[in-house]
Design goal:
60% of the residues lie in helices and 0% in strands. With 78 residues, the chain is mostly helical. It is built from four helices and no strands. The N and C termini lie far apart (41 Å). It is flat, with a radius of gyration of 15 Å. Helix 1 (14-21) packs across helix 2.
Protein backbone atom coordinates (compact mmCIF):
# COMPACT_ATOMS: atom_id res chain seq x y z
CA UNK A 1 0.00 0.00 0.00
CA UNK A 2 1.46 3.39 -0.92
CA UNK A 3 2.26 5.92 1.78
CA UNK A 4 -0.54 8.41 2.48
CA UNK A 5 1.37 11.29 0.87
CA UNK A 6 1.34 9.41 -2.46
CA UNK A 7 -2.40 8.68 -2.54
CA UNK A 8 -4.75 10.42 -4.93
CA UNK A 9 -6.22 13.76 -3.95
CA UNK A 10 -9.39 15.27 -5.43
CA UNK A 11 -8.58 17.00 -8.70
CA UNK A 12 -5.29 15.21 -9.34
CA UNK A 13 -4.69 14.00 -12.87
CA UNK A 14 -3.96 10.39 -13.68
CA UNK A 15 -0.41 11.44 -14.58
CA UNK A 16 0.06 13.05 -11.15
CA UNK A 17 -1.06 9.85 -9.45
CA UNK A 18 0.89 7.50 -11.74
CA UNK A 19 4.29 9.21 -11.72
CA UNK A 20 5.28 8.69 -8.05
CA UNK A 21 4.04 5.09 -8.24
CA UNK A 22 6.08 4.31 -11.34
CA UNK A 23 2.96 3.41 -13.33
CA UNK A 24 1.40 4.62 -16.53
CA UNK A 25 -1.78 6.67 -16.46
CA UNK A 26 -3.46 3.82 -18.35
CA UNK A 27 -2.61 1.35 -15.57
CA UNK A 28 -3.88 3.75 -12.89
CA UNK A 29 -7.15 4.07 -14.79
CA UNK A 30 -7.42 0.27 -15.09
CA UNK A 31 -6.95 -0.12 -11.34
CA UNK A 32 -9.49 2.64 -10.68
CA UNK A 33 -12.08 0.90 -12.90
CA UNK A 34 -11.43 -2.47 -11.25
CA UNK A 35 -11.93 -0.94 -7.80
CA UNK A 36 -15.15 0.81 -8.83
CA UNK A 37 -16.50 -2.39 -10.38
CA UNK A 38 -15.75 -4.34 -7.20
CA UNK A 39 -17.45 -1.65 -5.12
CA UNK A 40 -20.50 -1.65 -7.39
CA UNK A 41 -20.72 -5.45 -7.29
CA UNK A 42 -20.51 -5.49 -3.49
CA UNK A 43 -23.11 -2.72 -3.22
CA UNK A 44 -25.46 -4.57 -5.58
CA UNK A 45 -25.11 -7.72 -3.47
CA UNK A 46 -26.13 -5.65 -0.43
CA UNK A 47 -29.05 -4.12 -2.31
CA UNK A 48 -27.44 -0.68 -2.39
CA UNK A 49 -26.53 1.72 -5.17
CA UNK A 50 -22.90 2.94 -5.14
CA UNK A 51 -23.86 6.40 -6.40
CA UNK A 52 -26.36 6.81 -3.54
CA UNK A 53 -23.71 5.82 -0.99
CA UNK A 54 -21.19 8.29 -2.40
CA UNK A 55 -23.80 11.07 -2.39
CA UNK A 56 -24.84 10.26 1.19
CA UNK A 57 -21.21 10.24 2.35
CA UNK A 58 -20.61 13.64 0.73
CA UNK A 59 -23.65 15.07 2.49
CA UNK A 60 -22.45 13.73 5.85
CA UNK A 61 -18.96 15.09 5.26
CA UNK A 62 -20.30 18.52 4.39
CA UNK A 63 -20.50 19.47 8.05
CA UNK A 64 -16.78 18.71 8.36
CA UNK A 65 -15.66 19.79 4.90
CA UNK A 66 -17.71 22.37 3.02
CA UNK A 67 -16.13 21.34 -0.30
CA UNK A 68 -17.28 17.69 -0.13
CA UNK A 69 -20.62 18.34 -1.76
CA UNK A 70 -19.06 20.45 -4.49
CA UNK A 71 -16.54 17.68 -5.27
CA UNK A 72 -19.38 15.16 -5.43
CA UNK A 73 -21.41 17.40 -7.73
CA UNK A 74 -24.21 17.87 -5.22
CA UNK A 75 -26.10 21.14 -4.93
CA UNK A 76 -26.79 22.23 -1.39
CA UNK A 77 -30.51 22.54 -0.59
CA UNK A 78 -31.44 26.01 0.70
Amino acid sequence: MPPADRCSRPGETLDAVAAPLGMTRKRVRQIELQALNKCRQWCNEQGWMLDDLVRDAAVRMSSQDGCAQKRAGIERAE
